[in-house]
Specification:
Length: about 325
């Protein structure tokens, strides 16, 4: 679904200082930026769920269709008696498609940063898949270094859908793939959802929907800073800007100040020039070949890629050593 994904619990109080420090650091930097992980408070997560249903936002529909159509073939690539590990599982909607097709899966390990949400989802999964061990792990999957002891002896498959990999810088994406290989181990298979390069107008519309939900999602970051850090952003004086940067193969999301203004966050005052932007997220697009080249560089052998021309689902294998 998302970097970390769906409905999140409110942030615990000890992390307010970290949030404040990250916001001040980003807004006093040049150019100004904010970390995308802060998009996903409760309001942001439910806005994101609405994005995935928008007519212009094709990636979720494309990926669900590809997974449904090719689930038997995907499942046939997995080793016998394996554990499926999902990085940033959210509501596990996509994993369920794979799990339903997978005869020999024994355990499902959803990894997500939102503990409450993960526990609820685990209860539903236990009910719907009574033959599976469900082993939720509350962790930031980008910082995770090992798997639960219960699956240490089992072969593994990994699952990383949603083109969340595109929200990393390419060098971070490569580092993540390498680390996932280390965690999943020799002989493991990894299934990754990756959005494809395509005509800029289709990309533009996917991130500039007519209803303005993506704009609301982006602006919610400022609303959240107001709510949680007592800042005084005037939301009417900032605009959602999303555009395709063809040289870098990425959609960039920004919040642009419509005028010269000052915003106060606690003790700190931040000045904006008219038109100055806060860079909030990138969504990198890959060709099948460029993604496979990156995967090879991270130690994975590409097995197969399924596409509908808009989106791609890749199967990768980690060499036995
Ligand atoms: N990873 C997906 C993408 O880049 C989903 C996503 C993350 C997204 N952040 C977003 C979609 C912000 C719209 C706006 O498309």
């Amino acid at each position: 679904m998302t970097p970390g994904s769906a409905l999140r619990a409110p942030r615990p109080i000890e992390t307010v200082n970290e949030f404040a420090a990250d916001v001040i650091a980003g807004l006093t930097a040049k150019p100004k930026h904010l970390p995308p992980k802060y998009f996903y408070d409760l309001a942001g997560s439910s806005l994101f769920d609405r994005i995935t249903d928008l007519p212009e936002y094709y990636p979720t529909r494309s990926e669900l269709d590809l997974l449904t159509k090719h689930a038997p073939e995907i499942a046939s690539l997995f080793p016998p008696a394996y554990a499926l590990v999902e990085f940033g599982s959210g509501s596990s909607r996509k994993a369920r498609i794979v799990l339903r097709a997978a005869a020999s899966v024994e355990a499902y390990v959803p990894v997500d940063i939102s503990g409450d949400f993960l526990r609820e989802d685990a209860a539903r999964l236990r009910r719907d898949f009574p033959h599976l061990s469900i082993i939720p792990v509350v962790a930031d999957f980008t910082a995770m270094t090992e798997l639960p002891a219960e699956i240490a002896a089992k072969p593994r498959a990994g699952f990383f859908p949603g083109s969340t990999i595109g929200n990393f810088e390419p060098h971070e994406a490569c580092a993540f793939l390498r680390r996932a290989g280390g965690i999943l181990g020799a002989g493991s298979v990894l299934i990754v959802g990756v959005d494809l390069e395509k005509a800029p107008d289709i990309l533009y519309r996917a991130y500039n929907d007519a209803e303005g939900v993506t704009a609301k999602f982006n602006l919610n970051l400022l609303a959240r800073i107001n709510r949680e850090l007592g800042a005084n952003f005037d939301l009417a004086a900032f605009e959602h800007h999303a555009f395709y940067n063809a040289e870098r193969y990425r959609i960039e999301m920004h919040l642009a100040s419509t005028k010269r203004q000052k915003v106060r966050i606690g003790e700190t005052s931040i000045e904006f020039r008219a038109g100055e932007t806060i860079h909030t997220e990138n969504s990198y697009k890959y060709s099948v070949d460029s993604f496979q080249a990156m995967a090879r560089g991270a130690g994975w052998a590409p097995l197969k890629a399924w596409t509908d021309g808009l989106f791609s689902v890749h199967a990768l294998r980690m060499a036995q050593d």
